[in-house]
Amino acid sequence: MVSGRYVAVVLSLVLMASGIPGASGGQDDISNSIVQEGLAISPIPANQLDFSGKDPALVAWGSYLVNGASDCSGCHSLPKFLPVGGPGSNPAADDPFKGTPTTQRVAGKLAANINVMHYLAGGRCFGSGTHAFMARNLTPDAHGQPQGLTLTEFIKVMRTGEDIHCEKYPTDPICAIGPDTAVLQIMPWPSYHNLTDRDLEAIYTYLSAVPPAQACNTPADGCPVITDNLHYSYPNTADCPNPPPPQ
Measured between alpha carbons, how far is 74 from 191 in angstroms, rounded to an integer? Predict the structure, then answer.
């Protein structure tokens, strides 16, 4: 956690780094600046991001790639959205898939109640039984490294699909879930392969800046025997509704 004064300085630096005004002469809430928009759409507020030792513009750029250009939390957060009133990013909003086209504004940011307590903490299952894969926790470990990976290792994973995390930490229970494969499955690393080194560094930097979080569904809970959202076994709570919404 950082002080409000530090966050104010960081925000000033981000705005200076972007150097691009908002879209449509201020009529559009979605900024033309990747840096400004990246910081604005982060489900984790700026005062809860860890900017220490990081380029604030790179953190914001990474957020734009993670939360705007991609849908990392669609796989790595379970559930991604909470119902209206739930303890998420915007309790007045709902799961956007439950809305109508008029729920959202064309010139406004997404109205959604994002599950920030378990943001990017993994746990979502793909497949069933012994053939299921479980999404990994992308939040920082005790050393501030996403998945316990260095930047060099992270880039290698995103370019080759090599499961470096389970090579380094073979006793992690999540490594025993799913069939043994030569490269990561489900994870769309081929789609990220051609991103620039700087893009991948920005993603890594943002992941390093988000708070550590725990998954609702853990390896101890396992994956459903039936491939649907109705048979998870983790406890049903306000921040971990079970069954989770079919997102």
Answer: 15
Using pLDDT thresholds of 50, 70 and 90, give the confidence band for residue 224: confident
Q: Is the pLDDT of residue 197 over 60?
A: yes
- Tell me the average pLDDT of the chain: 89
DSSP character string of 78-145: SSSB--TTSSSS-TTS--GGGS-GGGS-TTS-----B-GGGTT----EES-GGG-EEPPP-SB-TTS-
Q: Tell me, what amino acid is at 167?
A: E
32, amino acid identity:
N
- In b/e form, how buried is each residue of 61-93, taking b as 16+ CB within 10 angstroms? bbbbbbbbebebbebbbbbbbbbeebebbbeeb
pTM of the entire predicted model:
0.88
Q: At what angle do helices 56-63 and 197-209 cross, to 10 degrees?
A: 100
